[in-house]
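A quick aside before the break. I want you to see a complete sequence-to-structure record at least once, exactly as it would be stored in a machine-readable document. Don't worry about memorizing anything.
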Amino acid sequence: MPDRRRLLSALAPHRWVLEPALAVVLFAAWLVTGLPYDLAAGLALVFYCAAVALSRILPGVALGLVWVAVLLELTEQESLDGAFRVISAVAVVASLVGVAAHGGRVLRWLDFSSAILLAPAVAYLFTVRGDLKFPQFGPVIGGYYTSQGIGFLLMSLLVAVIFVAAWLLGFLVARQRAANVTASGSRGPSVLVWLASNGGIESGEDDPSRPELVRRLTRTQLTTDVAGAIALAVFSLIIAGADRSAFLVTIAFAVAVALRRMSPAVALSVAWLAAVLQMTTGHSILVSNVAVLIVLYATAAYGDRIVRAAGLISAGIGALVAALYLTVTAAVAQGYYDLLSSAIASVALQFAFLFVVSVTVLGLSWVLGLLMRTWRNARVARRARAEAELDRNRAVEDVVVEQERTRIARDMHDVVAHSLAVVIAQADGARYARRTDPDAVDEALATIASTARSALGDVRVLLAELRQSHPADAAREPGAHDGPQPSLADLDQTVEHIRSAGLPVDLERQGDVTALGSAQQLAAFRIVQEALTNALRHGDTSRPASVVLAEAPTHRGPGIVITVRNTMRDTALEPTMTGSLPRIGHGLPGMRERASLAGGSLTAGPQDGEFVVTAFLPGAVA
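That is the input. The structure line, written in tokens, reads:
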């Protein structure tokens, strides 16, 4: 693979040689068959080859040269042989592909219009002015038999199909090249697109559907497609015999089947070419026509938006062409030479029947491909949905773990902040009372030891929880712990610690305040603990703080209301204050979060010189 890329990179600056080389090949083919003696025919051949050579670098000039060459042929009086007509048709096809692949948007649609308008002119050169003649029967209109008019219309339709298929191939090449530019080099173009690239002047179109002109297949898929095409060709040749034209038609259909999954657009073009070759050589239905159904299925199953639309349009036009061709050939075979006779009714009925059957069969193949595509997309969507669900579950698990760690960190903050505040207050008091009241020092040291021991035990419990994750316990009650957790029964001990630290506290219980779950009791304990710790650190310790635990009013539902009040310090004398609000760090957000997780609410703020914390916690559900 690296060697091939290195070779392509080395040849990249010389891609413009591709079209001139093809023009030289066409001119050499005419040299082999014999040059025309007429000046107009010779100039037409030169213009055809020049159009092919310039289709990459000057697509507008190339399109104009094609029109000039066709007009020169139309002015030629003498009939030219079939080899010249074939070479000129190949030149027109190559020019249409080049102009569509390398021209701008306006020029590209002019190229499409030219593909349709040139079809009757080329069909006229093949039939009326060429070697391809139709049977002469029916009324004479304008010097031509009706059968010749029908044959000319059929030939014009077939040539238009070939030209439009060539334009579509060039258009898809341009879209693929634009998609490769949009991808910013994430994936290199295929060899086909590389050969058709204009060497640096990229198309400005940006197709959000990311078209795939040449799809990448696995080795198994490629082997299966080629083996199936070979099997179809061998079976068709055994049934159809060794006729040369039938052999060419079968090989063309086999190539289309081999390319159906790798490049549905190219396969569709090859299938149309094979069908036109089959009709122009006079063959009826062949076994290899099964390839048409396979290719239509592939356009819907593997093609992008435009290729799918081209497949659907091909199904409709193909049904019309097939019905018309089979009806005309059957009419000729049965001797319906007078199209104005009474047999015209049966011919029209036969055409209608064949059209309905053809459009049903061809359309059904396309619909089956679309259904397969829908099923495949649904399977991919289900897989993506399952992966998204797995990612969501993992995200929920991560959130649960993070919430658990946040709760543990909040508990750690409450325990350490409360304990250190008590220890600091006791240590300061013992230092000042050491000379006047030695007994107070012993009492302070005992309180410090008890507080530190209790805090150490709480920290050990929290650290043990931190070592373990509980993603599977996401449904458990918030605040549930594996170790013993404090409750309202432990509130008296906390109040005593605060009192011994130097802040008088009045604790009052009103009504039944025990109807709380474990999570609510833990939240109530931590809220009171944090509020008293903040009062000890930031409030006026010379004035008492009050804690009221009251049964909730009836309109608020069962539960308790916690109210903690403390007198604020004079902010003018305290440099650590900001306005009238103390700097209390993460205490207030932590208390609000605890109340919210327990199903309640909390408000906190200064009121008439006091800092008031009010919380409501719902009771346990009966």
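Two observations worth writing down. The mean pLDDT is 77. Residues 139 and 146 are 6 Å apart (CA to CA). We'll return to this after the break.
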